[in-house]
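Annex B, item 7. Sequence and structure tokens for protein A, then protein B.
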Amino acid sequence: MAEWPYPLRLVPGTEATAAWYEEAAIGAREGFSPILITPETAEIGADESDVAGADIPSPDSIVDTYVRKLIFQDWANQKPALLFGEPDPEDVAAALAASEEYQRGGAYAYDEPAFADIRELPPDPPEAQPQAKPFGAITSLPLKGPFPQVAITRLPPPDSWRAPLLLGFGGWNACPEPAMLAAFARRWKLLHGADIAAVTQDTLEFVVERPPATFEEATRLAKEHYIAGIELGDMDMSDYIAALRSMRRWYFWWD
């Protein structure tokens, strides 16, 4: 990290959580975003001066764009001969026209099988001390144990949702491009007070101030997580929606 262009504070991996909350309090006063990073964090993708104030697509348009992509993928999966060729605009239009759910209600009416049988469950008990919970990919790596040392970097804008732009995070497999990922993160900041707190090579972790209060809000949020290509594993979607109503941390991984 010798050429890292932003201020760094090195801390033992076991102290990362407490150190981040300390930096977050300072950042709120001084106007920067503290982000936990590791030696595996994605390399810088662009110069901060070029992207810190860059315009990004509106979150609503991003959701719609991704739903259109999912609908077309459903159509393309039925045509193996298509392979990975560029679709014709007429094919995209036909796929969208054939989606009754999309035509009836737009992006949030798009129902993947994972949402077909969701049921409202009681929310999990609220986390009494979210500050005590370690950051997953920073301090409890599966099969590897914690990083012996991590760093907290101070990104210049106070808006943590710009972190994908500054770090060049995104744009592989199902992970949105950095600008699109920033649009999602901006929406979640506005609606739920969610700040990006940790970035590794293929994960993001958010600290959440205002979890969704109702089943309907949590369902919408779960659909946005799904639309963004976030790997949710084998979790039952009803359980995930219920958990979102009390989660103060979101841990996202893209393969």
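Protein B:
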Amino acid sequence: MSSKKSKPPVDKNAVRARLERAKDEQLVVGVRRWIRGADYIEGFVVGIGARWVAVAGLAGRVRFDGFALLRLNDIQAVTIDPDPDCFTVKALRARSEWPPPSTEVELDDLRGAVTTAAAAAPTTSIFVEFDRPDICYVGSLVFVDSAVLRLLEVDPQGQWRRKARSLDPDDVTRIDFGGDYEEALALVAGPPPRD
């Protein structure tokens, strides 16, 4: 059995219940996934689907920083700050950034998630954390179906690559969009070249 399929037992109903509570009550969450080397995600749950959850992410400056879409099956633990008026919420209110931003993304399958995320922002970050937990591929979605996801990447210097990268959709563990980094790359790179 591959490492992509094996994981410690997790009570999926309990995870989902915690995510739903956090969403309904607009509570700060921390999400830990069982993927070795994966980032700890902190923010507010703004959507839950059959296979994915949307989190309005928080930057270290206590500001919203785009959205992270996470596969539900990868979630190992959800911590909730039960105080609806905690420091983070107070800071966001003081900055006129409350309530958490919403997003209209499909969360029932990868194709819907990546397509709607790509439609919401000029660039999208795609993570394949089992293979490379330390990097993400940022770019413009070219094509996705059950067999392949093709992304025209923009490099860290803000230059569009000439050829699209092909990824296995089953390997995608996280999709980010609307964050400062993706926005900065899109500003520098300009619109993607179209053939």
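Comment on protein B: The radius of gyration is 17 Å.
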